[in-house]
From TrEMBL:
The keyword NADP does not apply. GO terms for cellular component: cytosol. It comes from the Eukaryota. Keywords: ATP-binding, Glutamine amidotransferase, GMP biosynthesis, Ligase, Nucleotide-binding, Purine biosynthesis. This is GMP synthase [glutamine-hydrolyzing]. The lineage of its organism: Eukaryota, Viridiplantae, Streptophyta, Embryophyta, Tracheophyta.
Length: 530
């Protein structure tokens, strides 16, 4: 385990569970999230110093609503492990300890004011004072508390907002301290962790690096060879640099041109790898292979699965080639998979999200074939993007790489809606995207945007160009701000900028006569269109 106390989150499916993890890590304390119905053995094996029960969409009254295992609370008590329940987590604690939770007369969604009791360690010396604005999202309420508990905050509607039983080290917050709209949320979490639980803050990226290098060396051993799927993006570049530091020339990187890359991307990526990173990389031309398999396919999830499978076929073939050269077949594959990829994709056991929905299968997680032979090494699997960028800086990865906007492995296939092989959609999209991105760079906006790209829509509209009637394509521009890709807001360009870009696109790209902008946030949309 990384050098720091572990705060373990038991996840009951709240949309905000990942935020709890992020907030705690930002306090230099290591935090992980596992399924809220994990076995007692799985929980105790991790040896957490603190356990937090997340919120969730369920109601404690319904049969089969998820809960922690029998024996969890006695274990926590006898090991002096503090437990904090948030929202559904509070309701679970109350119900399992013999209190009563009922369907509330009034629901509380969004901003609410609460009055807190500052003699509680959760709110002691709070600068905000007795009245606090918090973010609520619940319909049930605790009405009778279990023995030993008392109320330490109430909402203006009179509902229980915070409870504690200090001698048993049990705490509960009905609101969400992890969301930024809760003004004192971070302070309450900080006091809970450091003052109430006495947690040590010692989780640093340097430790993560050392820890991961050790894990890689232990896994790979002294003479096995390893393949790394390198995309030119932030994640795989940092992953490759880390593994290269651990095992040196036994790492063999492969960059796949799947025909779904952006304008001149192959040339640009290969050149920068050689010039700036000094990593040995082989480029595999698999354009025909991917596009043949994608012909006629329109369903987004099917596209993603096909792409995931083709990637693995190529990595297998590359391993075979290396066997002929080295006399030994690499048995491991490094991928730059991140925590959000795992959270949003088909949830593998232990990843936590067993009580929430699969949004889309990221090609490198849910899209992987079941019978793949290469074993995975994913050193960034527990990190968020900003943490990966931090790790990259420690590893001296050039800033230019670290600042690149994310680009999904399925590439333009999830940005050409419908059949990607139809007409010259891919070519049109490449030209439009290049104009958009170059304009953003020229305007000095690239670093303030999380991700920007163009989308090819499978519709035609009527235009008039050079006095001629055209019946051509519509493209959409999307630019978003985000911290980790889990939630996002659309970026506000000045009208003049948009006007310029639209003009450049229609003048410069044959086959396009209309440009629209995507102004939806995530949720309700996602960042990519498929
Ligand atoms: N064209 C490619 N060639 C080889 N591997 C790829 C390619 N595209 C994606 N991958 C693999 O899939 C993983 C996930 O892709 P993803 O786009 O999430 O990460 P990334 O490209 O490394 O970083 P970023 O999110 O910044 O683009 C990559 O880390 C890499 O291992
Ligand atoms: O490597 C990847 N493989 C994928 O299959 C994939 N799908 C989405 N993304 C990227 O993830 C972030 C969130 O995207 P969505 O809001 O579209 O789910 C955004 O940054 C997306 O670009 C992917 N990255
Ligand atoms: N956000 C939550 O955890 C909600 C818990 C429960 N479903 C309620 O409505 O009260
Ligand atoms: Mg990428």
């Amino acid at each position: 385990m990384v050098k720091s106390d572990l705060v373990l989150i038991l996840d009951y499916g709240s949309q905000y569970t990942h935020l709890i993890t992020r907030r705690i890590r930002s306090l230099s304390v290591f935090s992980l999230c596992i399924s809220g119905t994990s076995s007692l053995a799985a929980i105790t094996h991790l040896n957490p110093s603190v356990v937090i029960l997340s919120g969730g969409p369920h109601s404690v009254h319904t049969p089969d609503s998820p809960s922690f295992p029998d024996g969890f609370l006695p274990w926590a008590r006898s090991n002096a492990v503090p437990v904090l329940g948030i929202c559904y987590g509070l309701q679970l604690l109350v119900q399992r300890l013999g209190g009563h939770v009922r369907i509330g007369d009034k629901q509380e969604y969004g901003k609410m004011e609460i009055s807190v009791n500052q003699s509680s360690a959760l709110f002691a010396d709070d600068k905000i004072g007795k009245r606090q604005v918090v973010w609520m999202s619940h319909g049930d309420e605790a009405v009778t508390l279990p023995d030993g508990f008392h109320v330490v905050a109430r909402s203006d509607q009179g509902a229980v907002a915070a409870i504690e039983n200090p001698s048993a080290k049990l705490y509960g917050l009905q609101y969400h301290p992890e969301v930024t709209h809760t003004e004192g949320g971070m302070d309450t979490l900080r006091r809970f962790l450091f003052d109430v639980c006495g947690v040590e803050a010692g989780w640093k990226m340097e430790d993560v690096m050392e820890q991961e290098i050790k894990v890689i060396n232990d896994t790979v051993g002294p003479d096995e060879h390893v393949i790394c799927a390198l995309s030119g993006g932030v994640d795989s570049t940092v992953a490759a640099t880390l593994v290269h530091k651990a095992i040196g020339d036994r790492l063999h990187c492969v960059f796949v041109d799947n025909g779904l890359l952006r304008y001149k991307e192959r040339e640009r990526v290969m050149e920068t790898f050689e010039k700036d990173l000094h990593l040995p990389v082989v480029c595999v031309d698999a354009v025909d292979q991917f596009l043949t398999k994608l012909k006629g396919v329109t369903d987004p999830e099917t596209k993603r699965k096909i792409i995931g499978k083709e990637f693995i076929c190529i990595f297998d073939a590359f391993a075979q080639e290396l066997e002929e050269k080295l006399g030994k077949k690499p048995s491991y594959l490094v991928q730059g998979t991140l925590y959000p990829d795992v959270i949003e994709s088909c949830p593998p056991p232990g990843s936590g999200r067993t009580h929430s929905h699969t949004i889309k299968s990221h090609h490198n997680v849910g899209g992987l074939p079941k019978d793949m032979k290469l074993k995975l090494i994913e050193p960034l699997k527990l990190l968020f993007k900003d943490e990966v960028r931090q790790l990259g800086r420690i590893l001296d990865v050039p800033e230019g790489f670290l600042k690149r906007h994310p680009f999904p492995g399925p590439g333009l296939a999830v940005r050409v809606l419908g059949d990607v092989t139809e007409g010259n959609a891919l070519d049109i999209l490449r030209q439009v995207d290049e104009i958009f991105i170059q304009s953003i760079k020229d305007a000095g906006l690239y670093d303030s945007i999380w991700q920007a790209f163009a989308v090819f829509l499978p519709v035609r509209s009527v235009g008039v160009q050079g006095d001629q009637r055209t019946h051509s394509h519509v493209v959409a521009l999307r630019a978003v701000t985000s911290q980790d890709g889990m939630t996002a807001d659309w970026y506000y360009f000045e009208h003049k900028f948009l006007d310029n870009v639209a003009r450049k696109i229609c003048n410069g790209v044959r086959g396009v006569n209309r440009v629209v902008q995507d102004i939806t946030s995530k949720p309700p949309s996602t960042i990519e269109w498929e």
